[in-house]
Design goal:
Two copies of one chain form a homodimer.
Chain A: E1 3-7, H1 12-21, E2 27-32, E3 43-47, H2 53-63, E4 67-70, H3 85-102, E5 107-113, H4 136-155, E6 158-164, E7 166-168, H5 177-187, E8 191-192, E9 199-200, E10 202-204, H6 205-217, E11 222-226, E12 232-233, H7 234-245, E13 251-252, E14 265-266, H8 271-277, H9 285-293
Parallel strand pairs in A: 1-2, 1-4, 2-3, 4-5, 5-6, 6-11, 7-10, 8-13, 9-14
Antiparallel strand pairs in A: 9-12
Helix pairs in contact in A: 1-6, 2-3, 3-4, 5-7, 7-9
């Protein structure tokens, strides 16, 4: 039976992936610093700090997973983009993937990001858009994917990589766009945002998990976009939330400056995913926001 | 005064760089496993195994170099392309560059490779040719350059990267093309090679060192090709050596198969180097081979 090691299983994306894996016929090993999380018959919890290469290697040596789903990474909102901790995840991730291969691993899937791409290329296609990351996060993610491919080549396992665009949905950390806007609206406080004209590929987190887990269970090799292929402005998302809360007067577009280098458009080309996996996102942006809005 | 830390100072390229640095006004710290090498008034030798991240960090913390010239990497002929040791160099290199930045480093130059490029793109241009490395070596070099750029961004130092094409010249390890062909010719043994039609950008090692050190002393940021911009077939190099040794009858082209994926052409586009540094390789392929042939 598949032994799947899931890292970052209590993070935003990792938790959705873990839940999605519950319905698959496999033994799941989940690791986080606390060594605990949601209880499920399939899941064994392990305590470990995967930023330490030695701990990552020891864990893989003990569990000998056949499948590795690597979701762990620094993801603190507003911090992660430029945190030096990204380098720790790169280093320990390289050690982790090589140890995984050395101990019989057969299938790796890791969580990448649209931040790896040159955002000047619209839409971003996995094998055509240049990898030209602006942030520390994007650079270290892209470097790690190269390292994971090197491990796959040395040890003969198969490897795929999901580059996630703009995920939202249940479990979204409070400081990120949708929950923070909603919290302000519900508290009757002004919602201060950038101009909002940025077009983004919003993707519902359970859909993200579905594609990531399908990738894990497939034999497809390479990078795959995780998005919808559809661009939506940040402004229209914020306006919809305000309308549904009945508080449009709280919106203050342009109150804050966008970060330097904020791309006007960041949207996935989903052709490769459609062609190779037959997958399309199940949840439209309005359906997803409605679920987030539901009490 | 500049404090330059040179890693790999007794390797093929590193030794040429170290010698080239002797003529610059700087204090040089050289590190290798033995802690010794060519004596020079400017150079202090240190013992350390840089594959160990902790040793790399300790060394940088002690020396606090202003400049880091990172030549160390696995380079054993016929082994390095697919050695898992490439991952150790990636991991320790990430730790090294972040520690360098954290301890006041201002300028980094690292040794990259034409193996990082998609070889289907001819000639290879630094900012246009896709990074699509076939080997473990190429993947880990490309990953390390991303990590070094992340370190530069976190700590605010400037970073450049020299992608070396096919270096040859004094100090070339015995198993590599030119010395191994010469040794066979001089011993009167058959020279068994591939078909030899592959076109390569042969670059004389002292020219390589000159460009790498100029990069180190400049403020140019980004990747730079280290080549001549000229393609020469392996066959013509081998034939010239045989002719000069008076042993053309020893040549057996096609006696061995080229490695899988061996690109037909691998040549540098030197436009960016010409434009930004005003540099051109001083030594033609025949002048370089003549120097190698000289007793």
């Amino acid at each position: 039976m598949m032994r799947v090691l899931v890292t970052g299983p209590t993070g935003f994306i990792g938790a959705h992936c873990l839940r999605r894996l519950h319905s698959e016929d496999c033994k799941i090993h989940a690791v986080n610093r606390a060594g605990q999380g949601e209880t499920n018959a399939r899941v064994t919890w392990h305590a470990g700090d995967l930023r330490e290469a030695a701990q990552a290697v020891a864990l893989v040596t003990k569990i000998r997973p056949t499948h590795l789903l690597h979701c762990a990474w620094v993801a603190t909102p507003r911090i992660y983009g430029h945190s030096p901790e990204n380098a720790d995840w790169l280093q320990s991730g390289a050690a982790l993937t090589f140890a995984f291969g050395a101990h019989g691993g057969v299938r790796f899937v890791g969580v990448g990001s649209s931040a790896e791409y040159d955002p000047g290329d619209v839409p971003c296609a996995e094998d055509a858009t240049p990898i030209r990351p602006a942030t520390i996060y994007g650079k270290c993610k892209a470097a790690f994917w190269l390292a994971a491919q090197a491990a796959a080549q040395v040890h003969g396992f198969s490897a795929a990589w999901g580059r996630i665009f703009l995920p939202y949905g249940p479990g979204d950390p409070a400081q990120r766009l949708v929950p923070s806007v909603l919290a302000s609206l519900r508290a009757g406080k002004p919602v201060q945002t950038t101009h909002g004209a940025q077009q983004r590929d919003f993707v519902y987190a359970p859909d993200v998990a579905d594609l990531i887990v399908r990738l894990l269970l497939s034999e497809e090799v390479g990078a795959f976009n995780v998005g919808t292929g559809q661009a939506t402005t940040i402004r229209s998302v914020v306006e919809y939330l305000a309308a549904r809360c009945g508080r449009p007067e709280l919106l203050q577009f342009g109150a804050i400056e966008p970060p330097a280098g904020d791309p006007p458009v960041l949207v996935a080309d989903m052709t490769k995913v459609h062609d190779r996996l037959g997958w399309r996102a199940a949840t439209s942006i309005l359906a997803g926001l409605d679920r987030v809005l539901a009490p």
